[in-house]
Specification:
alpha/beta; Nucleotidyltransferase, domain 5; five-stranded mixed beta sheet
Length: about 140
């Protein structure tokens, strides 16, 4: 009697689910990257400073842009101080120690920046930082 040993066929790797996951990850990173780029207004010319912390953003950081004409923009929309207070108060309730970065234009009045800082404090946000840029090296 001859016994035949039946070995199972080697399992083939399914490529379709793996390709789906790769495309989903790619879409996620592209959308996230575009969202973070939109938060920083290119028209804001922040003041220069020799020293300062690393320009690395914190996770979940809210960027408040103050343009040269004293308008306030958050997440691509123009808001006034009352709307900013409402928005920040909702976020401060949900997230303890919420970081906020203020990007004030070099030509904006200091009083406007103080008003934004005061609004942040009224909303319960104390983790505030300021965006600066290093001076360009002269040759």
């Amino acid at each position: 009697m001859k016994f035949q040993s039946r070995q199972p066929e080697p399992a083939s790797m399914q490529l379709a689910p793996m390709i789906d996951i790769v495309f989903l990850l790619l879409i996620f990173f592209i959308v996230t990257w575009q969202y973070t780029r939109a938060e920083t207004e290119l028209s804001v010319s922040v003041p220069t400073a020799q020293g300062g912390a690393d320009p690395q953003r914190q996770i979940g950081e809210i960027v408040i842009n103050i343009l040269a004409d004293s308008t306030i923009r958050v997440e691509g929309t123009t808001v006034d101080l009352e709307q900013l207070l409402e928005k920040l108060a909702k976020i401060a309730k949900e997230y303890e120690n919420q970081p906020v970065r203020i990007r004030g234009d070099g030509g904006v009045q200091y009083q406007r920046i103080v008003e934004v800082i005061d609004t942040c404090q009224k909303a319960g946000i104390w983790n505030i930082s300021f965006a600066t840029q290093r001076p360009t090296p002269s040759k």
